[in-house]
Amino acid sequence: MKTKGLTGLIITVAMCMLTVQVAAQSTPFMIYGYVSYENGDTCNNPTVNITNLDTGVEWQAETSASYNYYQLILDTTNISVGNVIEFNATSPNGNQTNITEHTVTQEEVNTGGFKFNITLAPNVVINEFVSNNATEWVELYNKGTTSVNLSGWTLKDGALAAKPLSGMILANDYLVFSYSSGWLNNDDDIIYLNSTITNIDKVAYDDWDDGNTADNAPKAGAGESTGRFPNGVDTNNDSADFRVFDNPTSGAPNIIDTTPPWWSSPETDPETINESDVVTFFTDWNDTVALSGYIFSTNQTGSWVNESFTAFSCTPDTAEQEVTITASAGTTVGWRFYAKDTSDNWNASDIQTFVVYDTTAPASITDLQNTTYQETCINWTWTDPADADFSHVKVYLDGIYKEDVLKGVRFYNATELTHNTTYEIATRTVDESGNINATWVNHTSWTKTSSTSVEIGNYGMSSPSGTLTVPIMLQNIMGYGTATVILEYNESVVHVTNVANGSFSSVQACNINNTTGTVNISALNTSGVNGSIEFALITFEAVGGDGDTTPLTLSVQKLCDTGYHNLANHTSNGSITLIEGTPPVISNGNATPGAIIQTILSDRNRTVSRNTTTLSVNVTDTGGSGVKNVTINLTLIGGSANTSMTNGGSGDIYSVDTTATDGINLTHNLVVTAMDNNNNTATSTITLEVLRRGDVVRNDKVDIGDALYIARYTVGLEPLADNWLLVGDIVGEDGNELGDNSVDMGDALYIARYTVGLEEEP
After folding, report:
1. Domains of the chain, with CATH numbers?
2. Which of 129, 150, 323, 407 could form a disulfide with 165 if both were Cys (CB 3.0 to 4.6 A apart)?
3. If residue 9 lies in a helix (H) or strand (E), which one and from where to where?
4. Which SS3 state, helix, strand or coil, does residue 134 take?
5. pTM confidence score
6. Which among 362, 251, 341 is positioned nearest to 293, based on CA atoms?
7. Is residue 212 helix, strand or coil?
8. Three-class secondary structure of residue 169 per DSSP
């Protein structure tokens, strides 16, 4: 604050006050003061609106961008004895406010004004409450742009029964406090929200007399709530700001629902519907507040038939109804859902229709046979049935569904098979109405044996930006000469950064394309080698996020020996899965208190608050795997190298209480290590000073010099030493080992007696 400018403002106030005394005929009246934040900091350039509640006239005081001073110059035609003056002050960012009142006295009219200092408080309001229910609750809403710590705040009713609050309410967020029935009156009451120093907000409802019942909020009935509407509005008129809600919105904005629910995705199961089928009908529903229930309606015979009302279980939800089809084949059936929300807003889905099909399945396929003998594929062929409405063949391989083969195709080629392996194809035919032939037509065949495989394994890799080098292997090869291999991968998960020679294989050329996710590699060995060969070493870099997986797919364009003979082979593909690699974040390392006296092994007591400190940090795991453990190295002060710090349920705070036997007369940086569930670690430090009790001159020993310093202090010849009570308060009345919260000649005497062996170590 610039004191020169402030002095000018104060002189202005004095001159105006002097004008009141000298020029009585103009009778000016000045209201002025200073605006501060709740923590004592000055609030420069506040907005201060001043209202005479008896006349309804409102003024805005003069303020300055450089100071926290405000003033308003009126005259006695505006102000009278007994007038109630309301002050409405707001910080420049709108995060903190204060609304308070002052009654004008005769003395203030005589002296021409008064000084009124204002302390701002966070912009938190009572946004919604339930007073007539088995569980009562009050919802607070932070209208500011910064979080507010509610520690020490209270809620009070008209009987001033206080409910302590705690926790942090985030900016533009809500916090709800619930209580057993009986705290708030059902008919009328008042709710106060108080910080540690001032009233933040209050709401009177129904007939509670707070001096003006006309502006009271309405009372709610059983199961209803009273809340601000629009959400968070605060005009200081509860009658205008609050209304009753049929559907309380605890922890959410207050809204009035006039919008009916809406629907999407009408479906039937099965999609193709035959005579006598039991069909399940589905339609998805959503609502701005909450869904209530639905009615299903069908038209199979020319008339609509409604099913019973069914309640939704959540919002959004799927309306579901099972109905047996009684209509004959060829009939067009209509169906729809009607749904309503908890505000009794109804809506209907569009009418959906389907045609009932026949239920006679087609004949089976014939002449099912294998027409190939390859290492990695089998091609089966067959003859389709002659049914006019035949649609497709459902194909299964070793009991696993593969695909539908349409009418007229008459073959299925199974690829990417393992060499020298038996496979069974199983088929069933289906017609256009979805009728499936119950008879299976199967055939068993096998693949040709391959002696050589081209392989890449399955790997895990840290992210972000982790790297990994893996080999492409040639297994069971004879006379390896050269090969061209293409590796495909998901370019949004990994990129290839390098291709290097493998053992006994020299990479001649490679083409890395991280745009398409491919790398083409050609390598050779001029001498020819046998067995298991590293064809090439591939280096990957992680570019995706935690949990992302990419297949590693190989295709062999050329593989031959030194005699230029092509070698039969098969591929074995792999994958890379990205694992989170972000370490936890450690912050706010703190020792409370930051300095303690040493713990000695004698029986002489210490005050716990003087030889014990709480070491704490905030640990957050931004990677998402969760915090595994937090430890601190206390070896510098005589403790364990891996002392656990525990989370007491207070968010991300980890702490431990400790004393110190070592490291006396030193300031220590104690190392904290945090590990997440992916074993990523981070370190930080907490500073702690360990002092020797009795060592007031801080030379790491207790001797007659310390007693002399205390004696000189008692007669004004020495100043307070650092941590005066911590090191100097040694003995109290009647020899109390805990001291007496002061440093005097009794403490000097104890040190003097200790130096000659008449007392224990302090």
Report:
1. 3-119 (2.60.130.10), 123-245 (2.60.40), 262-355 (2.60.40.10), 366-446 (2.60.40.10), 453-580 (2.60.40.680), 585-691 (2.60.40.650), 704-755 (no CATH)
2. 150
3. helix 3-22
4. coil
5. 0.35
6. 341
7. coil
8. strand
